[in-house]
Amino acid sequence: MKWLDALPKNHRRGSFPRCLLFMEGDRTIVSDKLTKLVGLPDIYVEPKDFWMPKGLPVLKATGEWDVTPMEEAKLGESRGFLSNDQRKEVTSWWLAVPGGANTPNWDIASTCTIGEKHGLLLVEAKAHGAELKEEGKSLDKGASAASIANHEQIGRAIGAASTELEQAIKGWKLSRDSHYQLANRFAWAWKLASMGVPVVLVYLGFICATEVSDLGEPFIHCDDWSRVVLEHSRSIVPERAWDRSLKVGPNTINALIRVWKQDFLA
Questions:
Q1: Which segments of the chain does DSSP mark as H helices, in order?
Q2: Domain for residue 39, yes or no?
Q3: 80 and 106 Cβ atoms separated by less than 8 Å
Q4: Are strands 245-248 and 251-260 parallel, antiparallel or unpaired?
Q5: DSSP-based three-state secondary structure for 106
Q6: How far apart are the C-alpha atoms of 257 and 237, rounded to whole Å?
Q7: Can you give the residue range of the structural domain that contains 193?
Q8: pLDDT for the residue 174
Q9: Domain count, the chain
Q10: How open is the CA angle 170-174-180, to the nearest 5 degrees?
Q11: Left (φ > 0), alpha (ψ -120 to 50) or beta: where does 186 sit?
Q12: Mean pLDDT of the chain
């Protein structure tokens, strides 16, 4: 388990190392795991698809760790998921001053096939209940003009996504100022679908991560994770939006709640 030493101390347990292990292996193994995770007949990942992270850090001959395999995807920046024009579009939609802030990180992201279309599989992973935050996006006192402009732009982007998702199903209350992480995940899913890229958004709970018991209640049974997600999202995301296909024009968003047991501790 020496590879754990290559991770920041606050990333050596819980969902982060489990995501790296989930993505470790040859391309056939990883694509099969991603397809199985989704578990829908018309959605699949192939060995030729592109994904991040790519697995565990690698120990080089020099004795140093190569940590590039564990890099997470930023769809506005990472090449391989979207075209150059699409990356520019999502970045300018999210940020008023590109370069002054990041677009969201995804725990796991992969290209995939949805029906007969090129799509994206986006995964938000957790290992205990305290990882689901209710806080909104904060703005520091004395923030720069660029930070303020980006803060306002993000608020508008999330609000517009919430309004548009009402066309698919009623009851959305996405906001920058509450449950920010949940809100930005669905906002990005909507934006991508509106650009012609269907999305599978998976909320993944790693069960039996007992080493994080001091941080929050780990998920022991499959039903534990579903219950926590539904409670967390109840005032923000309509319950009927989960585990179904939402239409965004001719494209779709599939928002799924899934569990996986990924052991890594001896």
A1: 15-22, 27-38, 84-94, 145-165, 180-194, 222-233
A2: yes
A3: no
A4: antiparallel
A5: strand
A6: 13
A7: 2-260
A8: 98
A9: 1
A10: 155
A11: alpha
A12: 94
265 falls within a domain: no
Is residue 246 assigned to a domain?
A: yes
Six-digit token string for 191:
């934006």
Exposure class string for 182-215: b at 16+ Cβ within 10 A, else e: bbbbbbbbbbbbbbebbbbbbbbbbbebebbeeb
* Residue 265 in this model has a pLDDT that exceeds 70: no
* Phi, psi (deg, nearest 5) at residue 119: -140, -175
Cβ partners under 8 Å of residue 171, min gap 6:
237, 238, 240, 241
Helix (H, G, I), strand (E, B) or coil at 198: coil
Question: Residue 108 and residue 115: Cα distance in Å, rounded?
Answer: 21
Residue 70: closest CA among 113, 7, 115: 7
pLDDT in tens, 193-235: 999 999 999 999 999 888 888 888 889 888 999 999 999 999 9
Neighbours of 246 (CB within 10 A): 23
Per-residue pLDDT, averaged over 16-26, amounts to 95
Is the separation of the CB atoms in 91 and 76 below 8 Å? yes
Q: How far apart are CA 168 and CA 81, in angstroms?
A: 25
* Residue 266, in any domain of the structure: no
On the question of pLDDT at 266 being above 50, the answer is no
Structure tokens at 2: 């020496």
* Closest to 256 measured CA to CA, from 121, 54, 112, 132: 121
Give the Cα-Cα-Cα angle 24, 28, 30 (nearest 5 degrees). 35
